[in-house]
Amino acid sequence: MSSMSPRFSLAVRSYGVNPDIDRHSFTQLVLPISGTLTLDIAGQGRDLEPSWAAFVDTGTGHATMSRRPNRSLILDLETGAVPPDMRERLAHRPFVELPPQAIRLVDYMRMVAEDGDPAPPLVAHWVPLLLDTLVRQPPRPASRLAALRAAIEAAPGSPWTTGAMADHAAVSVSRLHALFRAELDTTPRAWLAGVRLDRVREWLRHTDRPIAEIAFAAGYADQSALTRAMRRATGLTPAAYRRQNRETRPRNP
Question: Residue ranges of the HTH araC/xylS-type domain (predicted)?
Fold first, then answer.
């Protein structure tokens, strides 16, 4: 069993094709921010994607894996940080779809975590908001956008016009807009732009791929188009973002 976590600990992690099997002496929230995870918690399994959360109770065996690029926020909590009634409810129903307000909070948490270790008082402020959101959400039907979102995240560089997205989801363009507004509180184009920028930032941090190649792979017309999008979103060019956020690791051969 893993050692006791700090009262609140937030990190960004990725998982591979080999199942990561674990059992903790603390509770944990798994908050996917890109890609899809396959998560089994005490025999309850689910493919977990962004806009969903998973609760892993103290001492509960679980296994996590994925066959595609992915990242998740992992929030470790001392057992005493979760009220007993909340623990019981979440342990019974560990997979919960997040409402739009919580999705925006998770996205903000992601940005802060990517900039460095968040201050404990800040994380402590987020925890009750997230827990309250999770226990208040009733079971929901499967997302009508799940297959479309998975397809786009697997191939963000494909020519995803609004019409192509509607065709993939087997709905009209107007219905597509309504679904995005209801489920994600955004538009299809804005969500697509966010997915592409997230993938670009991931590649800039973790690979040596040329920036022009990254631009094309993420669906931008050219490197200049990517540079304009990055400046609007981060205030940095792709090259400057790479220098500022580069991990210390061996270079590709």
Answer: 146-244
